[in-house]
TrEMBL record:
Stretches assigned to coiled coil: none
A Pfam short name: CdiA_C_tRNase
Domain of life from the UniProt record: Bacteria
Organism: Mangrovihabitans endophyticus
Domain CdiA C-terminal tRNase: 338-381
Protein name stated in the entry: CdiA C-terminal tRNase domain-containing protein
Lineage, broadest ranks: Bacteria, Bacillati, Actinomycetota, Actinomycetes, Micromonosporales
Amino acid sequence: MTVDPVIAARFDDAAGPWAGVWIADEIELIARGVHDGTWIDGELARPRAGLGGLDDPASTPGPADALRRCGAPWLAAEVAPLSEAMHRLTGDPVQIAAHARAWRHTASALRRELNALTTAVRRDTRAWTGGASAAYRRWAGEREQALAALARAAETMAAITEGTGALIGTVRAMMRDAVTAVVSRLLTYAVEPTATAGAAAVVAAERATALCAATAATMSRWLTALFASIRRLLGAGGRLADLIRLLKEKLVAGRNNALDDPEEPAQPTKDPELEAARIHGLGMDPHTAQFRPTEAETARRLERERGITLTRAPSSSRADWFDETDRSYDAVGPFDPKYFERQWRRFSEQIVLHLKKADLVPVDVSQFTPQQVARIEAFIARTNLAPRVFIVGR
């Protein structure tokens, strides 16, 4: 597969409730990817409903017990490693359900707060006019967007928690079915040496060994696919946690801004000449003393999308820019999309190498097609580079 989408394809519904808000848009992409199951390896079946497959191995008899009861301990020894692998793959359904339930309770509380805020704004500001009313409505609208996105993120965290447990339970059930099928075959082998002696016992032992080896190989593939699937899902969860942190910061900043006197005069706008000089400086390469327009454009996209102000890094630094909190950024891209396939290997390597140069690596995708953006997103998710590596310029 060229695309490994823990995060779904780009969300282009411009009329949808998430349009225009990059954090909410990215949360919706992750939610879609989690719910449609694209993170599940093709080697595995879709998870069965619920967490019933995660039963306690100590409470259920092993399939090999039937071989011991029929007087064939030598065959039971052959199947023992298969049973052991199955029994080691377990979990606590009660704890998993409790974690998912906690996330859903959080989502419900956020939606109640959202509904209360929406109702209050509509009721209390109907006859309010002027600059202060416009500022308040703008603040309330941003808070509503943040609350809705947080609720969606909490629901997705619940789905990630349940999805992980359900897939493990499904793979365990697949392994149990496979072991049961092996035991059924071995029971027929156990009867053959009692009917005929000598060579028949040797043949039965060889067939049993071959059958168990083939089943072990199949189960090994399932486990490899399971681990790969969970890595993808955990990568989405890590990115989601980072987005939740950004939303919480946005809410705190909005609350602090709301405490300011709304009747205070607006701050003077930035001097156009000084701002133009600052933006020009963002594109100046200190090592070559040359202006790079694409770097300046990437810096401006980064500032707009992240709500930060950048300064050019000094020549002693390997990064491109620093923000107000002294976090460093080193951008990758963009370039002509017609060279994307030819440059993909070097481009993906540069993303990883840039992590050695800065705290954060924004990948500018402003010139790429939706399919190329999806490939970059899949690469970031598959290699667990988020949240240090992220997309700008959608």
